[in-house]
């Protein structure tokens, strides 16, 4: 495994060049950075994790909620709320009729592939392209609201942005979807943004995190 | 350090820690916490800089960073406030605005010529001086004037430092931490609100840290201790000290600068308790070092333990002067007299206390002139005269020796933020004070900025504002706002005593005297805004903090209006000088990269911006542009080339009404477009102007994939969404631009390259003909393939999910090796498509281009009931056409026209060049241009004016320039 | 910076929004006069008072409608466009022959 690099696969993360020094594992036909020289302590402090290769999908239409329910996934009651399934998938409700589902590290996103195999309702439910249109990175640790306050004009402190809340907003002047969740007790903001701007946002966030001792982490830091 | 007082004076300094710095090349010592000004004053050094115009020696005026008297030069930074900047080890400090040395300024003589430099002198003398009729006089004089007018010297070798910005969110922001601000912050925080307390000075407490509020001198300290302890214990309060709130913007958006960071504060409620600026008295030589605000003297003592002088005269128009006298007396400064411009103090007990100290009180008197030491270096005495009328004094007076004059004419509310918020100033003739009104609902004021001056009333006013804010937030519970009133009069109505010999300064920054203001009105500048522009009053660094009130009074008086009618000039952000670094620091400049971006860089591409995107212009050195383009284009024409077209917009339309929606949005007919075929799609806006184009692929009956231009896709997508919010068709619209990476593989050998990689698609000309759409796999990657002819060769656009983009590029370059494949860039592509006469929307079109002008009539369906812009297209195409986009040719070697060069028709301009390049395939310069309709026939020649005014004559030719029968792309 | 309340996303900096022009009724393009059409395309009332406008929340791609006072710049309310546009709009070839009620 140690000789594996992101370029060993035809599916590549949008920021794989920023991950020098990582150890990688094969996830969903791509390379996921699992370990750097830091670990859980860094994730608790301030970490930046690239989850681009982890599967995710989305559905839009008046029958999208029905499609998710049929697949056994939870359906958040209101827009801009997220719920976690028992298996660890995050279901994001972005509007009355748009949902994204983010895969879980527990099964390396296998459940998403299964979901994508399910036949869609014959009308009014369209699969979305968020695996490719959007980049997925996760900001972790104790200083999340303070870090985001350096790039984003929305108050993301606990009192106004609780676990399970979603903000569709602008960060570092690009459109982002920010989800507040938790992995194994570590506070996380998962950020989905234009995949073509992935390297830009990566650099902007690392710069914002420096003040809080932030570093790039691997997925095992959340284990 | 002879001038230092004992503790508890010196709140801000640490006597255990010394600092050493140089001023004007001489070593000085101070304490940690000293400002440069206090450290110098502590050493008896009072002249710190010189004035802007007359180069008069200047010393501390406010000791609060609110004046320009002590602007100094640091190594790397000019125009630093000496009373704000901390003294630090090794600092090299110089004064400013002198020629020679600070103490011996050769230009100090300027003061003697001041009567030859009347108000508006620069404007009137140097733009059109009568004695230099035919010369640009300003250009002649400018270097001299700039050298003399000075201000500091920039460090041109500076290294940029890291400045940044961050948001702060709170329920309530309180600006100012004097008694009103502290009281407001505590009240709001105690009710559960999250509060941000912003203080410009390095410590909390405002006037409690330097003012005396009672004869005994106990009250301020005990109150401060009590309030600060409460703030300390209150978790709901976040404190920013040394932080300037520099503006008020809509909905309580406040830039607060602290150190190298600008906080963008967002607060639901804002309470401004910014206090007030003590005002000076206008008399002759009121700018001498040693003449200062009363509060500057008390700040020197209480903050820095610096004895401001040995023998003082306190000139006052309110009771605060008596308290200052008591403070000076207690600290061992002999007070020669309290000169009270009023007939009697409001609080008689204060006069009693002062008299009990053996200090003389002169009621109804003023200082008429301060008498300088040699070279105007310091005050040595004052001429005190009885006031006999408004601004008028007795013929003779009494000279009192002193080295310190404390002025206390009254207060001006710190109105700047509030006026930025739309607040209006109204002058209260009884109080002789400006008051604020008409503030936004979410902005409240408290304390002396609100005209409340009694300490107890100030505290109550803070609570009042807090309760009102809490009520608006729904957090007030059953608290009710206390009623607050204040009877204390603090402003003397006319503290202006003009002197026939002048130097009675209204504005210290700009060296403006009382007569300058009056003369400006006599020259016809009656409006205070015009007075400002003509005289420059209030334009200096202190922005009218001290000059606004006397100017308003003088202008009102000179123009027979009320002070309210006269008003003050507009206050704009920033409130205090702000470095460009604060504005520029950590600016976000997003860029977008395709999945293949790094491969382009590795292959030596010269990148160019396309909107936010970075795209390869061509591959090679910038200076070899033409050569690179020729090689690349010849590869596409003769072998095979590949270009990254990932930036091309992509929109998915799915649903039962997808075809109906396409039919309404684009000009062509789409209902009957066959599945598996592409069709050119032109988009007009409601004005009938062509705004975008692309290729529409019908993937299934109810699924279209349509491309859009790189720069246009966001707008196209938005317009589509907006239309369907109205039409409510059964269609899902998705912008998939970033979801697909794409290349155009073009050239005679492109099929052979693709055949190596796409095994599951029939690539034969019959199986995958020109303009067809197919899906399959390329190098194992799921792909959408379009046969397009943009560059006029056999070619395939291959679109794959973005995460596969780099692998697709690698596979094509590898597979293409045996065919000598080369990547080509955007500039080459533009040349190739120009050879084919294909337009680029927004390069070859402008805000008026309708389909007729572009020969796109064939792409407009006249049979369908509606498309966006259909009615406008009908109307404009029925009008006689005035111009047309045509192809033109010029022989090789002619001066090449550039985009934008004008096409002439006689003396008139009839059009312009939109694209032009040398074409190796055609062997001539070719281009597209708008020409007058009479010039548009093939064979016509029309003139183009190129750089330098030269005229070249181009010939209109048939399009396309290359492969006129379009055989190559259809192979 | 001004704050606007997006019906989907709540209060946001105005920089997150894109202005989409006034909500105007399109005259039937098949039957209206040139003058009526030119009025619709080129002329704006510029009235001092409450106007109804299209606004887009760019990060979520959501169009909505806002009522705004042009003198005070106060945004009085914002709501989903379905409150105004709740029926499928049709265009038909017959429009040209038989004038009917303006669409949209």
Please provide a written account of the structure.
The complex is a heterotrimer of chains A (223), B (971) and C (104). Chain A has helices spanning 40-45, 64-70, 110-117, 130-133, 144-148, 198-209; strands spanning 23-27, 30-35, 46-50, 56-60, 81-84, 90-95, 98-102, 126-127, 134-141, 166-171, 174-183, 186-194, 215-216. Chain A has 223 residues and is an alpha+beta fold. Chain A folds into 2 domains: 6-54 and 134-222, Gyrase A, domain 2 (2-Layer Sandwich); 56-130, Aminomethyltransferase beta-barrel domains (Alpha-Beta Plaits), CATH 3.30.70. Chain A has a 6-stranded mixed sheet. In chain A, strands 5-6-7-4-8 form a 5-stranded antiparallel sheet, with helices on one face. In chain A, strands 1-2 form a two-stranded antiparallel sheet. The longest helix of chain A has 12 residues, at 198-209. Chain B has 7 domains: 1-156, Ubiquitin-like (UB roll); 164-277 and 413-473, FAD/NAD(P)-binding domain (3-Layer(bba) Sandwich); 280-409, FAD/NAD(P)-binding domain (3-Layer(bba) Sandwich); 504-573, Arc Repressor Mutant, subunit A (Orthogonal Bundle); 597-646 and 740-833, Probable tRNA modification gtpase trme, domain 1 (Gyrase A, domain 2); 649-738, Aminomethyltransferase beta-barrel domains (Alpha-Beta Plaits, 2-Layer Sandwich); 880-971, Elongation Factor Tu (Ef-tu), domain 3 (Beta Barrel), CATH 2.40.30.110. In chain B, α7 (320-330) packs parallel to α8 (348-356) and α20 (750-757) crosses α21. Chain C has one domain (3-96): Folate-binding fold. Helix content of chain C is 9%, strand content 34%. Chain C has one helix at residues 34-42, and strands spanning 3-6, 10-13, 17-22, 50-57, 62-69, 75-79. A 4-stranded antiparallel sheet of chain C has the order 3-4-5-6, with no helix packed on it. A two-stranded antiparallel sheet of chain C has the order 1-2. The longest helix of chain C has 9 residues, at 34-42. Chain C is globular. Classes of the chains: A alpha+beta (223), B alpha+beta (971), C mainly beta (104). Chains in contact: A-B, A-C, B-C. The interface between A and B is large, with 42 and 44 residues.
* CATH-scheme architecture of the largest domain in chain B: 3-Layer(bba) Sandwich
- The radius of gyration computed from the alpha-carbon positions of chain C, rounded to a whole number of angstroms, is 16 Å
End-to-end distance of chain C: 33 Å
CATH architecture of chain C: 2-Layer Sandwich
Structural class of chain B: alpha+beta
Largest sheet of chain C: 4 strands, antiparallel
The named CATH superfamily of the largest domain in chain B: FAD/NAD(P)-binding domain
Task: Please give the largest β-sheet of chain B.
Answer: 7 strands, mixed
- Rounded mean pLDDT of chain C is 89
Question: What is the tally of beta strands of chain B?
Answer: 48
CATH superfamily annotation of chain C: Folate-binding superfamily
The CATH first-level class of chain C comes to Alpha Beta
Count interface residues per chain for the largest interface.
Answer: A-B, 42 and 44 residues
Q: Level of helix content of chain B?
A: 10-25%
Q: Kindly estimate the percentage of residues of chain C that lie in beta strands according to DSSP.
A: 25-35%
Q: Low-confidence spans of chain B: pLDDT under 50, at least 5 residues? A: none
Overall 3D geometry of chain B?
elongated
- The number of helical elements of chain B comes to 23
């Amino acid at each position: 495994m140690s000789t594996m690099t992101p370029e060993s696969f035809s599916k590549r993360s949008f920021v794989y060049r920023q991950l020098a020094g990582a150890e990688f594992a094969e996830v969903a036909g791509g390379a996921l950075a699992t370990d750097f020289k830091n670990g859980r302590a860094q994730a608790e402090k301030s970490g930046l994790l690239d989850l681009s290769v982890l599967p995710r999908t989305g559905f839009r239409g008046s029958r999208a909620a029905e499609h998710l329910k049929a697949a056994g996934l939870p359906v958040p009651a209101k827009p801009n709320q997220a719920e976690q399934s028992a298996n660890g998938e995050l279901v994001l409700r972005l509007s009355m009729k748009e949902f994204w589902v983010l895969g879980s590290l527990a099964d390396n996103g296998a459940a998403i592939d299964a979901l994508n195999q399910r036949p869609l309702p014959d009308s009014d439910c369209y699969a979305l392209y968020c695996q490719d249109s959007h980049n997925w990175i996760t900001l972790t640790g104790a200083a999340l609201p303070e870090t985001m306050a350096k790039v984003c004009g929305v108050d993301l402190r606990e009192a106004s942005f609780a676990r399970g809340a979603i903000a569709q907003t602008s960060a570092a002047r690009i459109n982002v979807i920010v989800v507040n969740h938790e992995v194994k007790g570590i506070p996380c903001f998962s950020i989905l943004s234009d995949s073509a701007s992935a390297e830009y946002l990566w650099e902007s966030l690392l710069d914002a995190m420096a003040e809080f001792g932030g570093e790039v982490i691997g997925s095992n830091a959340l284990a | 350090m002879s001038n230092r007082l004992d503790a508890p004076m010196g709140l801000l300094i640490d006597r255990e820690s010394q600092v050493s710095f140089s001023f004007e090349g001489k070593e000085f010592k101070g304490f940690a916490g000293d400002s440069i000004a206090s450290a110098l004053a502590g050493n008896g050094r009072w002249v710190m800089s010189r004035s802007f115009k007359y180069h008069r020696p200047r010393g501390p005026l406010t000791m609060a960073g609110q004046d320009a008297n002590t602007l100094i030069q640091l190594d790397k930074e000019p125009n630093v406030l000496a009373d704000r900047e901390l003294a630090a080890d090794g600092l090299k400090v110089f004064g400013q605005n002198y020629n020679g040395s600070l103490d011996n300024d050769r230009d100090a003589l300027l003061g003697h010529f001041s009567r030859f430099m009347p108000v508006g002198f620069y404007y009137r003398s140097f733009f059109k001086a009568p004695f230099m009729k035919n010369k640009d006089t300003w250009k002649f004089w400018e270097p001299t004037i700039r050298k003399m007018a000075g201000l500091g010297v920039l460090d041109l070798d500076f290294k940029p430092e890291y400045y940044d910005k961050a948001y702060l969110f709170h329920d309530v922001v309180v600006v100012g931490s004097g008694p009103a601000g502290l009281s407001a912050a505590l009240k709001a925080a105690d009710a559960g609100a999250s509060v941000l307390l912003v203080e410009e000075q390095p410590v909390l407490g405002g006037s409690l840290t330097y003012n005396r509020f009672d004869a005994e001198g106990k009250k301020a300290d005990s109150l401060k201790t009590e309030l600060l302890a409460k703030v300390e214990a209150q978790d709901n309060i976040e404190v920013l000290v040394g932080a300037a709130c520099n503006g008020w913007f809509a909905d309580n958006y406040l830039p607060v600068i602290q150190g190298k960071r600008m906080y963008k504060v967002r607060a639901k409620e804002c309470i401004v308790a910014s206090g007030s600026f003590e005002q000076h008295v206008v008399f002759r030589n009121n700018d001498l070092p040693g003449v200062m605000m009363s509060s500057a003297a008390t700040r020197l003592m209480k903050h820095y333990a610096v004895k401001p002088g040995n023998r003082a005269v306190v000139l006052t128009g309110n009771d605060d002067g008596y308290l200052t006298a008591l403070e000076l007396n207690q600290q061992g400064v002999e007070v020669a007299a309290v000169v009270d411009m009023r007939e009697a103090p409001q609080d008689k007990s204060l006069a009693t206390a002062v008299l009990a100290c053996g200090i003389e009180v002169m009621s109804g008197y003023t200082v008429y002139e301060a008498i300088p030491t040699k070279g105007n270096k310091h005050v040595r005495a004052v001429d005190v005269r009885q006031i006999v009328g408004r601004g008028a004094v007795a013929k003779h007076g009494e000279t009192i020796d002193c080295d310190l004059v404390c002025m206390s004419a009254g207060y001006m509310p710190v109105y700047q933020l509030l006026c930025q918020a739309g607040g209006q100033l109204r002058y209260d003739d009884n109080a002789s004070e400006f008051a604020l009104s008409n503030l936004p609902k979410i902005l409240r004021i408290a304390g002396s900025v609100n005209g409340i001056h009694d300490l107890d009333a100030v505290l109550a006013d803070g609570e009042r504002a807090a309760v009102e804010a809490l009520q608006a937030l729904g957090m007030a519970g059953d608290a009710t706002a206390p009623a607050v009133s204040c009877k204390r009069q603090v402003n003397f109505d006319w503290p202006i005593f003009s002197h026939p010999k002048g130097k009675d300064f209204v504005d210290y920054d700009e060296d403006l005297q009382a007569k300058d203001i009056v003369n400006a009105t006599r020259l016809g500048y009656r409006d205070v805004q015009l007075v400002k522009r003509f005289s420059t009053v209030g334009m200096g660094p202190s922005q009218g903090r001290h000059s606004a009130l006397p100017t308003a009074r003088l202008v009102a008086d000179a123009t027979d209006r009320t002070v309210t009618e006269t008003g003050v000039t507009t206050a704009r952000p920033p409130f205090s000088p702000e470095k460009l670094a604060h504005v520029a620091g950590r600016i976000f400049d997003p860029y977008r990269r395709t999945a293949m971006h790094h491969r382009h860089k590795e292959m030596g591409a010269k990148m160019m911006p396309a909107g936010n995107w970075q795209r390869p212009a061509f591959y090679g050195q910038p200076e070899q542009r033409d050569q690179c383009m020729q090689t690349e284009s010849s590869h596409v024409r003769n072998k095979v080339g590949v270009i990254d077209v990932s930036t091309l917009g992509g929109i998915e339309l799915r649903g039962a009404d997808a075809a109906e929606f396409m039919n309404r949005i684009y000009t062509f007919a789409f209902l009957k477009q066959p599945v598996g075929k592409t069709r050119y799609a032109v988009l007009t806006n409601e004005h009938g102007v062509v705004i975008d184009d692309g290729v529409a692929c019908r993937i299934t009956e109810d699924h279209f994939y349509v491309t859009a231009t790189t720069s246009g896709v966001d707008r196209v997508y938005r317009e589509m969404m907006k239309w369907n919010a109205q039409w409510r068709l059964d269609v899902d619209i998705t912008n998939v631009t970033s979801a697909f990476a794409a290349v155009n593989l073009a050239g005679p050998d492109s099929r052979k390259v693709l055949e190596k990689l796409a095994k599951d698609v029939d690539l034969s000309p019959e199986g995958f003909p020109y303009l067809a759409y197919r899906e399959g796999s390329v190098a194992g990657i799921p792909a959408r393939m379009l046969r397009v002819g943009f560059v006029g060769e056999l070619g395939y656009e291959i679109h794959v999910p973005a995460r596969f983009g780099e692998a697709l590029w690698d596979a094509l370059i590898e597979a293409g090796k045996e065919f000598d494949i080369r990547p080509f860039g955007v500039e080459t592509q533009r040349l190739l498509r120009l050879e084919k006469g294909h337009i680029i929307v927004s390069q070859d079109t402008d805000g008026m281009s309708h389909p007729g002008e572009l020969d796109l009539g064939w792409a407009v369906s006249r049979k369908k009931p509606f498309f966006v812009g259909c009615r406008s297209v009908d109307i404009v195409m029925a009008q006689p056409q005035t111009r047309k986009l045509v192809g033109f040719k010029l022989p090789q070697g002619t001066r090449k026209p550039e985009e934008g060069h004008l096409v002439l028709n006689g003396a008139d301009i009839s059009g312009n060049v939109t694209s032009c390049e040398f074409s190796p395939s055609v062997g001539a310069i070719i281009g597209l241009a708008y020409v007058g309709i009479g010039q548009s026939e093939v064979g016509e020649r029309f003139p183009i004016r190129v750089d330098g005014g030269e005229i070249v004559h181009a010939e209109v030719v048939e399009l396309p320039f290359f492969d006129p029968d379009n055989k190559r792309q259809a192979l | 910076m001004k704050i606007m309340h997006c019906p989907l996303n709540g209060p946001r900096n105005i920089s997150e929004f894109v202005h989409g022009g006034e909500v105007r009724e399109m005259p039937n393009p098949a039957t209206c006069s040139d003058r009526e059409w030119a009025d619709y395309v080129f002329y704006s009332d510029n009235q001092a008072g409450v106007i109804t406008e299209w606004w887009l929340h760019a990060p979520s791609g959501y169009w909505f409608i806002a009522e705004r006072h042009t003198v005070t710049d106060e945004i009085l309310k914002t709501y989903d466009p379905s409150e105004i546009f709740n029926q499928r709009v049709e265009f038909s070839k017959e429009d040209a022959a038989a004038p009917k009620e303006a669409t949209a």
